[in-house]
Backbone:
């Protein structure tokens, strides 16, 4: 809350354009990290997606350009629908520079937007351990992954009038695993 109020105070002050451009990445990253810490994934995604490209290593003490890509991509996947992901992430020319640093995030978002949910989840699962070591993400990674998985299952149902448990298990269960209990929890 303190970070957010201080960022708002800085934004309220009229700064010269060159100073504002210099501060913009730092303020957006600070707002994004504060929103992430509070579990406000949509707000965090908006902040990270708005960081000007070309920040270089100037802000590495807070978050690197790679971190901006990961935090922005994961928070967007957890909180945005397919249309928003397409428009705000994949078509965002500013954020594209960050996605090029973390191609697996771009792939995961692309898979989700294209309806290849199991490929999206599989891509993300490969990097789970890395994210559990991240100082900012580690507390939230289970919830973020759960939200992405739940959205994937819901999106999987949309084009069908009926879905069998076998097809659902094939798409999301993995070998010898069932999504029945998870589905019951989602319905409740």
Residues:
């Amino acid at each position: 809350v303190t970070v957010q109020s201080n960022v708002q105070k800085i934004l309220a002050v009229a700064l010269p354009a060159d100073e504002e451009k210099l501060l913009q990445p730092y303020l957006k990253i600070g707002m994004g990290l504060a929103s992430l810490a509070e579990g406000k994934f949509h707000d965090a995604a908006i902040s990270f997606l708005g960081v000007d490209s070309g920040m270089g290593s100037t802000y590495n003490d807070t978050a690197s350009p790679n971190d901006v890509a990961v935090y922005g991509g994961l928070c967007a996947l957890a909180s945005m629908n397919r249309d928003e992901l397409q428009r705000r992430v994949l078509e965002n020319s500013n954020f594209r520079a960050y996605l090029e640093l973390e191609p697996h995030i771009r792939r995961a978002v692309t898979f989700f937007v294209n309806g290849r949910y199991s490929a999206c989840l599989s891509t993300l699962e490969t990097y789970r351990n890395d994210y559990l070591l991240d100082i900012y993400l580690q507390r939230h990674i289970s919830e973020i992954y759960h939200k992405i998985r739940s959205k994937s299952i819901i999106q999987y149902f949309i084009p069908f009038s009926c879905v069998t448990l076998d097809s659902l298990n094939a798409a999301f269960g993995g070998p010898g695993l069932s999504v029945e209990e998870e589905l019951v929890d989602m319905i409740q």
